[in-house]
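Structure in, sequence out. Go:
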């Protein structure tokens, strides 16, 4: 789904095996290295929990990509390292789902999109 960028590497930490065991009340580090195919003044992250083919918005503390390690404006052909946190709230249900993480440019096109299977646990 990455239209305007090419993912080089995705790192979720700590997550030694998949599905990632996400413990309630813990934050996980997200690091994505990608190359941009376009120029964009800004970028915005959208995170979802995907269950039964339905995307449920997953709030993150900082959706602005320019405040998450990306030097803006984004230049065509440059590599960027996007860093963020995935907080797992204690009130989340204990379930298996797919986390879908998107970063969109000014035109709402995807710089990157990736999915990872997770299991939320106490």
């Amino acid at each position: 789904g990455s239209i305007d960028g090419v993912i080089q590497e995705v790192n979720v930490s700590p997550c030694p095996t998949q599905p990632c065991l996400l413990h309630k009340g813990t934050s996980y580090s997200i690091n994505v290295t990608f190359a941009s195919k376009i120029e964009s003044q800004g970028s915005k992250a959208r995170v979802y929990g995907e269950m039964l083919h339905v995307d449920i918005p997953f709030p993150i503390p900082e959706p602005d990509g320019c405040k998450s390690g990306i030097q803006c404006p984004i230049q065509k052909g440059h590599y960027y390292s996007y860093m963020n946190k995935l907080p797992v709230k204690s009130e989340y249900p204990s379930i298996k789902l797919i986390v879908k993480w998107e970063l969109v440019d000014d035109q709402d096109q995807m710089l990157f999109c990736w999915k990872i299977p997770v299991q939320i646990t106490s």
